[in-house]
Amino acid sequence: MNSMAMMKKSPTTNTGYDPRWAVVLARDPRADGTFYYSVRTTGVYCRPSCPSRRARPENVGFHATRAEAERAGFRPCRRCRPDRPSLNEQHTSMVAQLCRFIESAEEIPGLELLARKAGLSPWHFHRVFKAVTGLTPKAYAAAHRARRTREQLRRSGTVTAAAFNAGFNSSGRFYETAGRVLGMTPTSYRAGGANIAIQFAIGQCSIGSILVAQSARGVCAILLGDDPETLVRNLQDQFPRATLIGGDRKFEKLVARVVGFVEQPALGLDLPLDIRGTAFQQRVWQALRKIPAGATRSYADIAKSIGAPKSVRAVAQACAANTIAVAVPCHRVVRSDGALSGYRWGVERKRALLQREARA
Questions:
Q1: Which of 46, 50, 80, 220 is an active site residue?
Q2: Residue 330 a catalytic site member
Q3: What is the 3-state secondary structure (H, E, C) of 318-345?
Q4: Out of 80, 99, 319, 330, which one is annotated catalytic?
Q5: CA–CA separation, 120 vs 172, rounded Å?
Q6: Angle, helices 137-155/111-118, rounded to nearest 10 degrees
Q7: How far apart are the C-alpha atoms of 37 and 20, rounded to whole Å?
């Protein structure tokens, strides 16, 4: 057998080229639960983040599940306890329970109360909650209440009924909160945005027409397409009774900034945004804004980063619901195999945006 053939058969070489080995060397806790590795010389299997002394690669094997490792004759490591929930999994489960508590509470729970329920100090709980959800406990509660406010304004017979059904014990506090989260009064929201002024203008770029719209709170829509009239109709559908006002020269400079970013991503784009969505959608959109230009993430990556690894389909739906193109860069999310999937404004536009960013 020649040396090349021996190299191909060498377990050391095979393990060294397996991407999971690099994860084991890095002891990356984010990989816990995605696979396990076993060590022939000790007869144990571990989670990727195990702090034990590193094994020699020729003694290492990989397993997709704990059951697979145990069927192969390996026992759980006593140090990393791969047969028990990891610290990340414990945190995710704990935060999920407290999210349900926040959602069912009549009043927004204070940090001290939440921390006591979690059995952690307020500082540690705040850090863990934000790491899992991408939001602080207060921001999560506010986002949930905003969603409940929108739902009740659509369903309830009166604004007063909506206030109490949304969990507010004071109509004054409801109007104060609703005005902040809706960008308009509750009455205007029930009327489909009546009496709300939204400036907009349409520009042209190499990937077609681009419409930028802005409320008093910030940019509320960036739409891409082939036909300017269709983009205006889409904006009208989004804000059916708002007053749409053609942008002046100052506003057209904002549109020029967005067009410039599409053409030259290295310029960057930092805009005040008026983002409206459910608590889950806001977590996804916030995660999208953290993806740097030139990089991509899978839907599974995003789901994991917000502490909801099983919500891949829901992440995809949140990406599809995004109405602020490029500023909330849902085009940077791809399938796990790297292939481009659906994009609200067309897969070819998604490909063009990614190609530009890769060259920037």
A1: 46
A2: yes
A3: HHHHCCECCCCCHHHEECCCCCCCCCCC
A4: 330
A5: 34
A6: 110
A7: 9
Element (H, E) at 65: none
- Residue 274: DSSP 8-state: -
DSSP state of 57: G
Residue 253 half-sphere exposure toward CB, CA atoms < 13 A: 2
Cα 100 versus chain centre, distance: 19
How many CA atoms are closer than 13 Å to the CA of 168, on its beta-carbon side?
A: 23
Beta strands in 122-264 (DSSP E): 197-205, 208-214, 219-225, 243-246
* Pairwise CA distance, residues 145 & 181, whole Å: 9
Q: Is this structure's pTM higher than 0.90?
A: no
Known catalytic residue at 50: no
Element (H, E) at 248: none
How far is residue 314 CA from its own chain's centroid? 10
Compute, in degrees rounded to 10, the torsion defined by CA atoms 276, 278, 281, 283.
100
Which stretches of 98-239 are assigned E, i.e. beta strand?
A: 197-205, 208-214, 219-225
Task: For residue 60, give the DSSP letter.
Answer: E
What whole-number distance in Å separates Cα of residue 301 and Cα of residue 309? 8
Segment 56-59 long-range contacts (CB within 8 Å, at least 24 positions apart): 56/12, 57/11, 57/12, 57/15, 57/16, 57/21, 58/10, 58/11, 58/12, 58/15
Residue 224's DSSP bridge partners are: 210
Q: For every one of its 360 residues, what pLDDT tens digit does the chain have, with 9 covering 90 and above?
A: 443 343 333 344 477 678 899 889 988 887 888 899 999 999 999 999 999 888 999 999 999 899 999 999 999 999 988 988 777 777 888 888 888 888 777 677 888 999 998 888 999 889 888 877 777 888 888 777 766 666 665 555 555 565 555 555 555 555 555 555 555 555 555 555 555 788 899 988 888 999 999 988 888 899 999 988 899 988 888 887 788 888 888 888 888 888 888 888 877 777 888 887 777 888 899 899 888 888 999 999 998 888 888 888 889 888 988 999 988 999 999 988 888 887 888 889 999 999 888 886
Encoding tokens for residue 253? 């400079």
Q: Tell me which residue has tokens 């540690």.
A: 124
